Amino acid sequence: MTSAKPRDYVLQGGDRGAERLRLLAAVKWPTTKTLLERVGLRSGRHCLDVGCGAGAVTLQMAEAVKPTGRVTGLDFDERCVGLARLQAQQRGLDVEFRIGSASDLSEDSAYDLVFSRFLLTHLLEPKSTLERMVQAAKRGGVVVVEDIQFTGHFCYPACAGFDRYVELYQEVVRRKGGDPNIGPRLLEMFLDAGLAEIEVEVIQPSYRHGPGKEIASITMEHIREAVVGAGLASDEEINDIVADLDSFASNPRTMMSLPRIFQVWGKRPDWRLALLFGVLLSPIEWP
User: Fold this and answer.
1) Quick one: angle between helices 215-222 and 235-250, nearest 10?
2) How many domains are there within the chain?
């Protein structure tokens, strides 16, 4: 299986990448929190965050499952993982952070909840990663994914810089082997992975002001190197796009969304329970 490695990932990593992830996490946490509570995140649960980045969601999970639960975060970015470990230490949270790609995930039936956010969109083989996530879940455990449909990203009124940003982001992700519009595919992927009791929610956070309106400009900066390296735009054009996005975001008469976000979750079937209930419900044949 091929998974995201630093050389394949479109967005910038390290300290600057962690800064962007922290901003995105702050903007996105309210809807992620609602999702995780809905799927059963609570004290005592054993959880895995695949592609955890700087650990923003991982640490929130750790707060929710203490004192008897445990949480593991997995990411290939050593600097982000180091920052996550430091945050866990400062907050007194017992979290295991591991350095590695999703292709390193080999556990079986280990977690009550396996979570991933904005990871599968970047992978060459997202179905294989989802299958590994399912394998890592306990029988009856839940697998939860949040991911994007970038074509759902919108602003009002029209903004030429925004339109160009949306175009460039999609093209550079495709050239790296990812799918910037993977969101609608998730239901089929969950079905193919054998998950049961699958649910889907589609959300669209939108903003008139505040950090939510800054995500597009910051993301454009963080894909600059990949875009210029692919010959899709020059540094000068990107400077113009960022300036246009910043001006748009500062105008109180405008609004901007995040990309459309698909929240999909399902349970790993427990065939032992199914067989047991099958026996209990089958008619008894008396001799």
Assistant:
1) 170
2) 1
pLDDT digits (tens, 9 = 90+) for 208-232: 999 999 999 999 999 999 999 999 9
Per-residue b/e over 201-230, b at no fewer than 16 CB within 10 Å? eebebebeeeebbbbbbbbbbbbbebbeee
**Could you give the CA distance from residue 178 to residue 122 in angstroms, rounded to a whole number?**
4
Diameter of the chain by CA atoms? 86
Top-confidence residue, 20 or 245 = 245
The dihedral region occupied by 16, where left means phi > 0, alpha psi between -120 and 50, and beta the remainder, is: alpha
Cα 66 to Cα 2, 37, 44, 117, 184, distances in angstroms: 34, 14, 6, 22, 34
Tell me, yes or no, whether 239 lies in a domain.
Answer: no
The count of other CB atoms within 10 Å of the CB of residue 278 is: 10
Residue 189 lies in a domain: yes
